[in-house]
Amino acid sequence: MPISSKIGVCAGLLMLAALALPASAQTKPEAAAKKLYCWNNDRGERICSDTLPPEAVNSAREEFNARSGLRSAEVDRALTAEERADAALAQAQAQVDAAALETRKRTEQAMLATYGSEDALRRVFNERTAIVDNNIKTANYNVTSLREALAAQLLSAGNKELAGQKVSDKQAEEIRQRHNELLAQLRLQTAFEHQRQTLEVEIAETLSRYRELKGIVPTQSAAVPAPEAAKG
User: Fold this and answer.
1) Distance set, CA 185 to CA 135, 144, 151 (Å)
2) 64, 80, 133, 212: most buried, per Cβ within 10 A?
């Protein structure tokens, strides 16, 4: 039967339970494997029992050898669904971080083996920079052209309205389409400019890491930007 007690009585109950076992039973393997469990209930009361009720299965508990009274195990409480999800996420993130670190090591080794000089590494970035710059240039041209065309259409529609003429449905639809095209090109322009800024950061970080791996000490002129000329 379950035995309930306060914290200070648990140890005594465990010892009494061990002493109460018959000598013949103490020598049997199945008796030696008998366990006593102690846990706290919802009210914080210490409960000790030779059986573990269903409501205590997920609770933190201590397990004792019924024959010797010695603690044989300590079991943490079961995690909640949210805690299990957090633990799984943390484990997955740790795996991703470890893979990223390993990838970085391999990339750095390949970088050292592939590029014998900083100039060779810069040439690769120059190719990427040229592509992004060309995209920005094209977007700028498209934005300017679409804005001018839209302004001309709006001016034409405005003049018609001032003259008391009705703006045709076709012209109104063309103005809407031109406006949507302009908005789309503005989004592209912003995205390309963001890519350029991100690339600048990547270039600076990669070159800095390359110099570090090569043991190259940057010159003072490279480490400290030159001051701008004073404006008159």
Assistant:
1) 11, 10, 16
2) 64
